[in-house]
Design brief:
504 residues; Rossmann fold; 3 domains; nine-stranded mixed β-sheet; five-stranded antiparallel β-sheet; 16 helices; 26% strand; globular
């Protein structure tokens, strides 16, 4: 069987001398990516015929080398385990141990971090330069059902779990988005997202390389550099998380009027801008629309399922909504008794289809517990309204049960952000003997802003039902977030508990 049965590799063979990637290392064609990934694979094999799903962990700066290493692992028959540049040593050690990785790859930036870890754990360590200097050779053949990648979840509530995808899974996740968002070889996307996360790996890099498009990669997000590329490149697509759009808004607001006009005009040449990985505040959506003319396309997904819901490429995109199921995705909402709900009723999102992951690595019981009759239980709660879905939040942290009511933390957050003294906020439910849970708000105040709980509640009375109004608040300098911009709400819960103890 030919190695071309890896779907993404087979597609690349069709794109030939088209430019695939522009990165700090230079400009590279699809043929160069195929040649270099073959060299990587040959070095990894080291005389063996097939890695046979051996786990290979790697940590590189975002750029061309990342793609060459990832593809090389796949072409050698291994499972890629992308590590995060932001992870401290204990987390890196946990992922290497949990995945059972036998090979660790790093570029020179991370050699000092990973080489000692590999030595201590008895793992083979390789520099990216060694791999890319190797000679291409004969590669194994296998089918797309082979396991391809382990991506670790964010681990906001417990130890991260390794989400296993096959090459078939990756193909389904990519092709669903390519169809829904109209990807073509004429597209040019700027990549600014972390490459240990499905948003960066599949939505941006995977879809781009599948389509024969051009993926331009920045080493790290920089608002001014992004604006410069929007203004001076042939970009047609941009995908980011809400915090990035908020920073771009801040950067635009700080620019001179003539510069603002030029940047706004430059946005017109882009055909699509997407936001995801965290709830998009309505305020940010409206500010960005005013600046760019684009209504950000919100979508919904998670590591285990890829993307599942999306607002339309063409058509009305409603603030606060994430649209309808993508191609290849089956979806249902069920109540606490696991029975389907009617439109207008809240329920847990459950997903079925080829985009769904295969397993949590080494955790068969955890895998089994997340499926019911073949449906994956996302743990997210949504409601269908006017033909589209609106995410209410995680059943564990974003749905607050207070005084017999179910309250969406995300809904309250959107309202509180409208207050002129609040620049950002996050809402959590804290256990309470009388109410079950109390609505508690952590507030990032605007510069020179001041707000008491009484003032906040007075302001909220005209905007929120009494049971949705915060009964506790604390000011914070910033909200704790993970690499994709999601607020780590368990950390806020701990902060409220600590604050409460200090008051006693």
């Amino acid at each position: 069987m030919s190695v071309s049965n890896i779907p993404l590799i087979a597609r690349a063979e069709e794109h030939g001398d088209r430019t695939a990637i522009i990165a700090p290392e230079g400009t590279f064609t699809y043929n160069q990516l195929l040649t270099d990934s073959n060299a990587v694979a040959s070095c990894l094999l080291d005389g063996s015929d097939d890695l046979n799903e051996a786990r290979v962990a790697f940590l590189t700066q975002p750029g061309y080398q990342y793609a060459a290493i990832q593809w090389g692992i796949w072409r050698a028959g291994g499972m890629a385990v992308p590590l995060a540049t932001s992870h401290p040593r204990p987390e890196l050690e946990y992922m290497l141990e949990d995945s059972g990785s036998t090979i660790v790859i790093a570029d020179s930036t991370y050699e000092a971090t990973l080489r000692p870890i590999a030595k201590d754990m008895g793992l083979r360590f390789l520099l990216t330069s060694e791999l890319l200097e190797a000679s291409p050779g004969s590669l194994p053949g296998f089918g797309p059902e082979r396991r391809a990648m382990i991506i670790y979840t964010s681990g906001t509530t417990n130890k991260p779990k390794g989400v296993v995808s096959t090459h078939n899974t990756i193909e389904a996740q990519i092709t669903s988005l390519v169809e829904a968002w109209g990807w073509s070889a004429d597209d040019h996307i700027l990549h600014v997202l972390p490459l240990h996360h499905i948003h960066g790996i599949v939505n941006v890099l995977g879809c781009s390389l599948w389509s024969g498009a051009l993926c331009e990669m920045l080493t790290a997000f920089d608002a001014e550099k992004v604006w410069e590329r929007i203004e001076n490149s042939s970009m047609t697509l941009f995908m980011a998380v809400p915090t990035i759009y908020a920073r771009l808004v801040t950067s635009w607001n700080a620019a001179a009027p003539d510069r603002q006009k030029a940047l706004t005009a430059a946005c017109a040449k882009l055909r699509l801008m997407v936001s995801g990985s965290a709830a998009l505040p309505v305020q940010t959506l409206e500010e960005w629309q005013g600046i760019s003319g684009h209504v950000l396309l919100e979508r919904y997904g998670m590591t285990e399922i890829g993307m599942a819901l999306s607002n339309p490429l063409n058509g009305v995109r409603k603030p606060g909504f994430v649209g309808t199921p993508l191609p290849l995705v089956e979806m249902r909402l069920v109540d606490e008794d696991k029975k389907p709900v009617e439109p207008g009723e809240t329920g847990e999102i459950q997903i079925k289809g080829p985009c769904v992951f295969q397993e949590y690595w080494g955790k068969p019981e955890a895998t089994a517990s997340e499926f019911v009759d073949g449906w994956f239980r996302t743990g997210d709660v949504a409601i269908m309204e006017d033909g589209a879905y609106r995410i209410l939040g995680r059943s564990s942290v974003d749905i607050i049960k207070t005084g017999g009511f179910k309250v969406s933390a995300l809904e309250i957050e959107d309202v509180l952000r409208e207050h002129p003294a609040i620049s950002d906020c996050a809402v959590v439910g804290m256990e309470d003997l009388e109410w079950g849970e109390r609505v508690c708000a952590a507030l990032v105040l605007a510069k020179d802003g001041f707000l008491t709980l009484e003032e906040l509640r007075d302001w909220s009375r005209e905007r929120l039902a009494p049971y949705k109004m915060p009964s506790r608040m604390i000011p914070v300098n910033e909200l704790p977030r993970n690499a994709m911009g999601k607020v780590v709400k368990p950390d806020l819960t701990k902060l409220f508990l600590e604050t409460e103890k200090a008051r006693v």
